[in-house]
Amino acid sequence: MSAARRKTSLPPLPGLPARTGKRRPDRIADEIRQEVAALLVAKVQDPRVAKVTILRATVTPDLSQARLYYSVFDEAAAAEAAKGLASAKGFIRSSLAKNLALRVVPALIFEHDRSLAEQEKLERIFQEIKAGEEE
């Protein structure tokens, strides 16, 4: 690799913030997650999404799709929450277009994140094992 093509880490210019090193898709995913979470609380009137929490978001490198992972307080209502999110998807995307400075708003894909339920299940199993050992 020639010296001209080698990337060097320069100190930030005085008065300007230092670069955080985050890639643009990661920054946009964070913005989308925050904005969608705020929209679900303040603007979306559908009671099916009242107990939905947006946990994380990922965006494809070309910014064409955003995958939003959510959990539901009551796991029994997960199917209804998925239907509510699907019906609110157009409203959420149009609100993102108004509130974010993006040329093209990514297509939204909502995925139910079951990791919290799995974690609780494992904790219960460990508690049962621990209680069995103490007896």
Automatic annotation (TrEMBL):
Gene3D superfamilies: 3.30.300.20. Coiled coil: none annotated. It comes from the Bacteria. GO terms for molecular function: ribosomal small subunit binding. GO terms for cellular component: cytosol. Residues 1-27 are annotated as: Disordered. One of its GO terms (biological process) is maturation of SSU-rRNA. It is found in: Cytoplasm. Keywords: Cytoplasm, Ribosome biogenesis. It holds the Pfam family RBFA. NCBIfam families: rbfA (TIGR00082). Belongs to the RbfA family. One of several proteins that assist in the late maturation steps of the functional core of the 30S ribosomal subunit. Associates with free 30S ribosomal subunits (but not with 30S subunits that are part of 70S ribosomes or polysomes). Required for efficient processing of 16S rRNA. May interact with the 5'-terminal helix region of 16S rRNA. Monomer. Binds 30S ribosomal subunits, but not 50S ribosomal subunits or 70S ribosomes. This is Ribosome-binding factor A. It comes from Desulfurivibrio alkaliphilus (strain DSM 19089 / UNIQEM U267 / AHT2). The lineage of its organism: Bacteria, Pseudomonadati, Thermodesulfobacteriota, Desulfobulbia, Desulfobulbales. The gene is rbfA.
